[in-house]
Amino acid sequence: xIQNEVLDCIRSRRSTRNFQEQQIKEEELEALLDAAxxxxxxxxxxxxxxxxxxxxxxxxxxxxxxxxGFQRWTPDDDYxxxxxxxxxxxxxxxxxxxxxxxxxxxxxxxNYENAMADCSLALENLFxxxxxxxxxxxxxxxxxxxxxxxxxxxxxxxxxxxxxxTICSSAVVGYIAKESSVPPRKEGTINIIK
Length: 194
Ligand SMILES: Cc1cc2nc3c(=O)[nH]c(=O)nc-3n(C[C@H](O)[C@H](O)[C@H](O)COP(=O)(O)O)c2cc1C
Prior knowledge:
Elements lengths: L4 H8 L13 H12 L11 E5 L2 H17 L7 H9 L13 E7 L6 H18 L3 E5 L1 H4 L4 H9 L7 E9 L20
Antiparallel strand pairs: 1-2, 2-4, 3-4
Helix pairs in contact: 2-5, 3-7
């Protein structure tokens, strides 16, 4: 197997779910956001918006709004993660962001077919950049699921996310408190025709 710095970074990136309290450095945040905006985008639209939330009160407020929102929310399918999130929201000490000090919300303009694809590629850039800097990161889906929750959206609007934007995805970032285990790769997911 070929090895180089980029391939090693891709293979060794893990989803972190245990973070230190300490905030990441300014230049680290800058590097992560810069990596995100250098992702490819359909038609070179670059219509995304990356909102980094580092304010503790704002992070707690979003967590609370998610908890409340999930009580009102009925999942439109039986995807286990959705049911798990709804159950988790009922726990008093529920922390969707795993105490991470930084949350990055990726939103995009409405009715744009590539909104999710563009934001997902950008977040993977961000995850790999985080890994290259020794930071932990994790994809957080709850904001996407509750993207139409009026109370959550009101608060996100106060944070500068346009009302009409769709919330595609989000990511938490911070210094790693506990390394995650390595999930093995499944067999039969590659098909080569020669
Ligand atoms: C679309 C998507 C949604 C995800 N949502 C969450 C989430 O809400 N919370 C979470 O802890 N991890 C979430 N993850 C992370 C996955 O659980 C993780 O990538 C997977 O278990 C493989 O582990 P690894 O990232 O360490 O390789 C999500 C990943 C993807 C791609």
